[in-house]
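Before surveying the methods themselves, let us examine one representative protein, pairing a chain with its fold in token form.
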Amino acid sequence: MSATAAGTAPWWAGRRALVLLFVLTLPLVTPKIRGADEIEYFSYLRSLVFDHDVEFGNEYERFYAADPRGLAGFKSTFLDRRETDTGRHINFAPLGCALLWSPFYLLAHAGVLGARAAGAHVAADGFSFPYVAAACYASALYGLAGLLLVHDALRAPGGIPEPAATLSVAGLWLATPLLYYMTLAPAFSHAAGVFAVALLLWLTLRAAARPPASVWAWAAIGAAGGLAALVREQDGLFLIVPAGLLLHHAISGREGGAALVRGAAMALAAVVVFIPQLLAYRALTGRFGPSRLVARKMSWPSPHLLEVLFDPGHGLFAWSPLLLVAAAGLALLVWRRRDAASVLLALALVLQVWINGAVESWTQAGAFGSRRFVCSTPVFAWGLAAILAALPARRLRLASLALVFCAAWNAGLMVQFGLKLMDRQRLEWPRVAVNQVSEVPRHLARAAWLFFTDRERLVKEEP
């Protein structure tokens, strides 16, 4: 029986609901670049377009001059130090965001040149508001595209009925740090990363559901995997899903030779797409690899594997309890379906836990939430959708109310974080919970007014 025949909403209604939610959140998008990571991503774009190189000294100087107090730490790491082998300024970020943002950035540049020709006084220097806004709104749009791909994958080939598919996507969007990184801090890589990972998994699951997929289809999957690694290197680990499916086909005796050819095409496409990053590494560090300063931060046995999940001050599930439910749902999905795709999705999440637990800066102190897990949203969506799809109609309504509560909790944390009502280095319990009901309502009206009238004042004001 189809979802529509069963009395649930058709798939296109869910897609329209997600687009409507996106339109409602658009006023929250803040076209601003403040922190080190954002400057690194944007500097790639500005340097490639205007200077035609990957030397970022002038970009770093420009951002530091605008906020020397706030970027004192940035200066000591990125302005005062150089790569030892090349003497170039350090940039730990990959260039995938710059590539994804570039069409919007170039359109902004064309618009600026046209406006200047008409007599407008706007700087055509790559730094002025239209350029920054282009990158930030591009991130928001990529985030939406990623969410729509997740929704589509849940519906077909996932077979998740409505409204469970839409509720899972909307819930994970509004009740986790993804909302923050699509709106208040879009110049980070996470919204673009959700798009790249969602595209990779969407292509993979569609190809697996409609065998035999062509060599070109698997090459496209590899290209999407290369793009995911370009946006954030650790997201290349999601290639375990298509690679595992091909291996499963080969071992099970189904088209073993064809699986090998498709795997080779996938791997070649991934490498070809990742070549720009290898060239950037070479120019920056003198070798085809990231800065040695990054490599020294990694401990491959992943000593913080459990802490990144359960630590009360920094853990993923402490920041976003809904993700614990989604993780449990993923385990349930593996148990019920016992198919290769479900197992590989769970394995992909385990690999993300491992790589995040291997980083010296595993606490992600100063960030809103466990941001390094934001790109795992497409995998979490399968787990949450599995639970919602298993609920009868009455309980699904209660689950919807629970999702609204989780979204409100996340919004309250965003208010606390933005107004410095909490320790921005970690969660403090029960202070954070008390603030949600005592401080957030008291500050909400003024914060909303300043947010839409004078955001810079809001950032600088003390609580």
Q: What stands out?
A: The CA atoms of residues 78 and 90 lie 6 Å apart. The chain is about 65% helix and 0% strand.
